[in-house]
């Protein structure tokens, strides 16, 4: 196909954009069901202990109530079914504040909410573990093998010889995902089978974990999730609310809708844990790193382990003969932490890239120059060659576009009125991976018009998966995008990976692309004509007069990928303005330059990157959840206390992509951009704040009190 | 939300009588605060008396003969309308700025002036029914005192409550020396000076203000002033919009050349009521308007602050914010009416 007729690489609009802005896109709670009942969860008000009495009599008598489900009458569920965070009403034990302890089902949402207030609970409290500052010294080696100490050379010994050192601890607070669409489910039983309408980043994962938890076979559970109102990791693994909706529907023998309230979102669907990260950098006088240690202390739930890998960036960003990456963890009575955008890398890069900035300052060296000086030839953690690595290009082209030369190297020297202006830079990275996925393509011809349906159990978080799959199929089949119908978000479709860890685009698009190649080959076999140029599937349907044809491809990552180290990389540039009186900081300009392989759609890609940047701005300046150590509750319990950025907090955002042809990670050369957009952002901003004010803030977020 | 009865009325007197009949009834104005509190099970009225149809929305000059004494704004007028009215923008730009610094455009379109005055604290222990809180449930203790009190008071708190009053509008009203007209049980109007309207918590934090049960706010009166050209509202918050104040300052300067005839300074985010910076005002009276004098006044004002465990920063921030507001006021009000 001629380049100009191709869809891939063009900034085309979302194919579902109109549906979304007209309210016709069906999110989980939009599914109508006859005779729907409404479920509302109620939660524990202690962090650790046992429920000794739970009085639901008043709630049961309340108007419209159909059932009150607690550990006393809940059906037996499989706690090891793969759902995250427990809270399945299987015992009177309470492990964290805000754990679900029951569900009210009623004719209306209001009646259920009211009745939930009428439940009276008595507890036998146990000593709770919630004060991270006190518990951190007790942290131990995690169970996860991938979190074992990673030692190369002798980081601790060699730093003693270093001419210049930075040894500092960086802290990041608990953050929440808070997607626009709170976690919601509609459950409809059909005999022994259940259909669950539920925003799911991993369709097949939601299916298997719900089935196992409900003691059903996977084929008895169908997940429907064509649209998702964001997830950021919190809809990657599924949580108790999914299955409790099914349980409620079974008990009242009616379809049931359960939507978490915004307030319940704080302690129902995981969170980004608090981290204390100690970074020790040692360098020669001319800025060559000789030692890098990244030691993370964090917390997990009392009954299971999740640790975000904060040391990942430090493994691969810089050349150093001596390196140490370690984790220590302490269980606490807090909900299980979970994958949160740029897991480990966003927080880890804050520590590493702040420390690099501190080192550059001590060396009296431009922070870009310091980074350029320490670029590794190969992946330092495993010696594998890079599939491609565009950090240098990101830094250099970004510096030019941003006007880096205007940066004053001494802090506090750029003042306009009552505002100090500063520039900061920081790099980031995220692995590029493809995962097994299958796709079916169905072609239909009427006359000279060929239409295609693409089927794959992919998910679209709102990022544009639907659109890039339509683009991929259009090019692969020789059709225009209007001729393509994309069907995703249904566990009855061919199984696929999830929209997690930036594997979505690579996994889904390669599956669709493989199916396009396969269907074209199969059609070619049917033809006895001779072609000088390889015909498209669409041309073959017409030339061979075929009405209907379909095929399925099961795509796997290429073997070659294993022998290489494949990652997306970026460089982030921030300009901040800090009011000298009030200490309020604003990011006035931000530029993210990313090398992420083939960019399928620059428009949706840009949205992904600047979306990540915006959360990064929140992470840097305002987002923080605080636990009251006396009870284990969140003292920040609404959007009035937990400050996500507003429009007014966001200055001018720009995203640039470095042209990168890299077919090693997968045939289409897609590296993924979902996660990398937030990596390095907070560090770039913190570094800009230092450049503006001379204040080095090592504990996020950088609120006004820290800058006055 | 608990079930409740919804009652309509069109006259103020009828509204008062309806409320009088049911000790568990509440007036409903814009509902932006009350309904949130009902959803959280903090407020539990069993009847809402909708007062939004009362004819109490006008904004007009108060005149004696041909002399204007000031401007009156209706108790049920919307915050947005008050902020944008020509009479207000021209004569009381400080009020416009303070209102626009609060909440979001959507909320200000719903929120009424009376409701704004009566909005309750944002203390998160007050909102969480599982927590102790003397304001919500007298006698249960104060959750914030030894808890997370970064947002809380540094002036005028008591052992019973350390909450701050969250309104931005009221901080400007305090500097503007407004008075609040309320209709009493007997249908008569009484007038309360804004600086006497809200209370310190003392031993009764459950009482935010001096209104008697059943009294209805009918209007707010703004007396004439001569600092419209030199007024500023500075609000410091954790993000640039849509957050409550860590500290805010409303300042107006009456100037004679470079000499300060009088200064009018009130603070938000520091106490259970708008905090008049009387010390700073006294120091500035008659002085020249210089940065040094601003600092002297600000430091004197903040010298008696009693911060809590998490809000020591508010003392320094208070000093800076007073200086910043005075500096801006001196430079001149930066928008045209
Ligand atoms: C997300 C959010 C952010 C906000 N941010 C800010 C902010 O930054 N700054 C700020 O100042 N405010 C802020 N607010 C508060 C907002 O200004 C108030 O909610 C609003 O002013 C209340 O007005 P209302 O008419 O909606 O009152 P309602 O909620 O209707 O009533 C509040 C109370 O006043 C009583 N009442 C109302 N009118 C009268 C009357 N005429 N006479 C007697 N009693 C009456 C009611 O019975 C009720 O008890 C915010 C609110 C929200 C929800
Ligand atoms: S500060 Fe006041 S409102 Fe907050 S918990 Fe204490 S008593 Fe309640």
Task: Characterise this structure.
The complex is a heterodimer of chains A (708) and B (337). Chain A is an alpha+beta fold. Helices cover 25% and strands 26% of the residues of chain A. Chain A folds into 3 domains: 31-126 and 180-230 and 235-267, Aldehyde oxidase/xanthine dehydrogenase, molybdopterin binding domain (Aldehyde Oxidoreductase, domain 4), CATH 3.30.365.10; 343-433 and 562-707, Aldehyde oxidase/xanthine dehydrogenase, molybdopterin binding domain (Aldehyde Oxidoreductase, domain 4, 2-Layer Sandwich); 434-556, 2-Layer Sandwich (Aldehyde Oxidoreductase, domain 4), CATH 3.30.365. Chain A contains 18 helices and 27 strands. A 7-stranded mixed sheet of chain A has the order 3-5-1-12-9-10-11, with helices on both faces. In chain A, a hairpin with a 4-residue loop joins strand 25 (627-628) and strand 26 (633-634). The longest helix of chain A has 23 residues, at 504-526. Chain A starts with 16 loop residues before the first helix and ends in a 15-residue tail after the last helix. The mean pLDDT of chain A is 97. By secondary structure, chain B is of the alpha+beta class. Chain B folds into 3 domains: 5-53, Uridine Diphospho-n-acetylenolpyruvylglucosamine Reductase, domain 2 (2-Layer Sandwich); 59-118 and 165-223, Uridine Diphospho-n-acetylenolpyruvylglucosamine Reductase, domain 3; 231-331, CO dehydrogenase flavoprotein, C-terminal domain (Enolase-like, domain 1). Chain B is globular, with a radius of gyration of 20 Å. Chain B starts with a strand and ends in a 6-residue tail after the last helix. Chains A and B meet through helix 3 of A and helix 8 and helix 13 of B. Chain A: Residues 22-127 form the Aldehyde oxidase/xanthine dehydrogenase a/b hammerhead domain. Chain A: This is Xanthine dehydrogenase. Chain A: Pfam families: Ald_Xan_dh_C, MoCoBD_1, MoCoBD_2. Chain A: It comes from Pedobacter mendelii.
